[in-house]
Design a protein that fits this description.
RNaseH_sf, 8 strands, RNA-DNA hybrid ribonuclease activity, alpha/beta, Nucleotidyltransferase, domain 5, nucleic acid binding, six-stranded mixed β-sheet, two-stranded antiparallel sheet, RNaseH-like_sf
């Protein structure tokens, strides 16, 4: 017995659904990409997983649909409706979550001068006023810092500690904004702010979704004597090394000098994913189906398990085994001619007809440990693959009807 007919039907249905998605959108028209992705993950993927809900979802790395919908509902409550979740789920205040900035920081015609930004390494600039920014993150917090270098002398230092919930990107653009606020009121002499490339691309975009980035653009747009340039990290530049030290020291501060920044959406989304993963893990541990797969895949994951179908058949006991076929009356008995019950363990360890594919028999009390070891061993998995091919090829040999020894 096999599931080829079922698999073919579900594959055909999944392809039809995918083709329907292609009809409602193109590269530049139709349903937005994020909506198409949601349709694919919540409809097409579920069609492929139909038939063995618990263990197939774990193998495919697809969380149960109700958990996915629960995560989406929680995200909608926090991001769109600005409603708090129940206290047993999270203590996050929706007002503390960063909102995407809308609109333009300036009219599109009011762009920056081409000489105000540069993506080339500005580390070789050694004259005039230079401002170096940096950020750091440790287990204690996130640090942001900048220092001002005049010729070879450091004339100003600034650093601040942020919450662990903030990202290094927040620290980088905050230090960039503080550096610009510091120098914008100074003399009109030529000065350069040196930052990493990602920060430049984010902050000089007038249509940035980050509120700090938009503030930076507005400030930079006015004084044409300030230039922002890229710089390589850990290249031995004095100012960069000093700002790096300041940022690391800031993570050790006992207080938070700056007003707390709003939490990024990415952090909340990661939290909701982790919450869903934990709930899925509890359901997998306490479930009553797929217990054989639990022995070899104790932890759920969003990544599919890289194994062949034949390997899974042996571990779950579904396949050309007399013990399985007898349940559906496809074999007259579950006993094999060599006087053993035709279980996967029997074929893989003691059956006289499969000697070429034998592995060391597991101790009964440690069978799940042995299965897990076999599943992670490439040589054993190859033996399993060949064994299943042999059983499927020699069907008539392994379905001989023999009397029950009892």
């Amino acid at each position: 017995m096999n599931w080829n007919t079922h698999l073919k039907a579900k594959s055909t249905r999944a392809i039809q659904l995918y083709q329907n998605l292609l009809k409602i959108a193109g590269k530049s028209w139709g349903v937005p990409l994020n909506h198409r992705r949601t349709l694919y993950k919540t409809v097409t993927e579920r069609v492929l997983a139909q038939g063995a809900v618990a263990w197939s979802a774990v193998i495919l790395g697809i969380p149960p649909l109700h958990l996915q919908l629960q995560r989406e509902a929680r995200g909608t409550a926090l991001f769109r409706l600005r409603l708090p979740l129940s206290t047993n789920v999270s203590d996050i205040d929706p007002s503390e979550i960063e909102e995407k900035a809308t609109g333009w920081a300036a009219h599109p015609s009011e762009h920056l001068s081409p000489t105000q930004t540069s993506l080339y390494d500005g580390g070789n600039i050694n004259t005039g006023l230079r401002i170096y920014t940096d950020r750091s993150k440790t287990d204690k917090g996130v640090g942001a810092a900048f220092c001002v270098l005049t010729d070879v002398n450091i004339t100003h230092r600034w650093s601040s500690r942020l919450s662990l919930r903030n990202t290094v990107f927040h620290a980088e653009i905050l230090s960039l904004l503080k550096a610009l606020e510091h120098v914008v009121a100074l003399t009109t002499q030529r000065m350069t702010i040196l930052v990493n490339q990602a920060s430049i691309k984010s902050t000089v975009n007038p249509n940035s979704h980050n509120s700090i980035g938009q503030k930076f653009f507005k400030l930079l747009h006015s004084p044409p004597h300030i230039k922002v340039s890229c710089i390589k990290a850990h290249a031995g530049y004095i100012g960069k090394e000093e700002s790096d030290i300041l940022a690391k020291e800031a993570t050790e501060m006992e207080n938070y000098p700056e007003p707390p920044l709003e939490f990024p959406e990415s952090l909340i989304k990661t939290f909701l994913l982790q919450k869903m993963l934990a709930t899925w893990q509890m359901a997998w541990d306490d479930g009553d189906t797929g217990r054989l797969i639990l022995n070899i895949i104790p932890k759920v994951s969003f990544q599919p398990i890289n194994r062949t179908r034949n390997e899974d058949l042996l571990f779950i006991g579904h396949g050309p085994f007399l013990s399985f076929l007898h349940i559906f009356n496809l074999a007259g008995t579950s006993f094999f001619p060599c006087r053993g019950i035709g279980t996967p363990i029997h074929y893989a360890t003691v059956c006289l007809h499969t000697t070429s594919y034998h592995m060391a028999p597991p101790i009964q009390q440690q069978q799940h440990v042995r299965f897990r070891s076999v599943a992670n061993n490439s040589t054993s998995r190859k033996k399993i693959h060949n064994l299943l091919h042999f059983l499927q090829r020699e069907t008539s040999l392994f379905q001989l009807i023999v009397p029950d020894p009892n």
